[in-house]
Amino acid sequence: MRKENNKDNTKSKNKGGRIPKVNPRIHRHVFRLNKEENIKLLSLFEESGMSNKAKFIISLLFNKEIKTVKIDKGTLDFYMRLTTFHGQFRAIGVNYNQVVKILYSHFTEKKAAISLYKLEKQTKELVSLCQKIIQITEQFDTKYLTK
Questions:
Q1: Cα 88 to Cα 96: distance, rounded to the nearest angstrom
Q2: Euclidean distance between CA atoms 71 and 138, whole angstroms
Q3: Per-residue pLDDT band at 34 (split at 50, 70, 90)
Q4: Is pLDDT at 1 greater than 80 in this prediction?
Q5: Of the chain's two ends, which shows fewer C-beta atoms within 10 Å, N or C?
Q6: Domain-by-domain residue ranges, the chain?
Q7: Rounded to an integer, what distance in angstroms lies between the CA atom of residue 48 and that of residue 33?
């Protein structure tokens, strides 16, 4: 004979599955577009960056704010190359410090000073190159990124 608990009878059983939505969308509407209208709708959808086409159309219908993000491949490429160059520039700085330490630890002060004089010339060229890069970056920023 099986014993039944009063607690089990009063308690609702968990059936599993999804939790029901508070405000489910049960009404469906269908509309048709011609070729040009469809192309325009799809281009607006792609520009919006939204992942759900239905939510995009609802936001259009009810005048909700839609944010569009345009990614310029040229700007992205410029940024990536500039980042790579910055990493190389930092590596040069690290190598510069290591060379100076090695010069003073393995050579006399006179020989180290001669080598550092040559290194200083190269450093001045590197500084002028860095200033040109900064100018080009600022020009790029004012021409293309502030639009």
A1: 12
A2: 19
A3: very high
A4: no
A5: N
A6: 28-69, 73-145
A7: 19
Q: Which residue has the higher pLDDT, 14 or 40?
A: 40
CA distances (Å), origin 95, targets 59, 116, 120: 55, 13, 14
Q: Which residues contact 104 (CB under 8 A, 6 or more apart)?
A: 112
Which residue do the tokens 């968990």 mark? Answer: 14
Tally Cβ neighbours within 10 Å of residue 30: 4
**pTM of this prediction exceeds 0.85:** no
* CA dist., res. 102 & res. 94, Å (int): 13
Cα 75 to Cα 31, 46, 82, 138, 142, distances in angstroms: 39, 19, 10, 13, 12
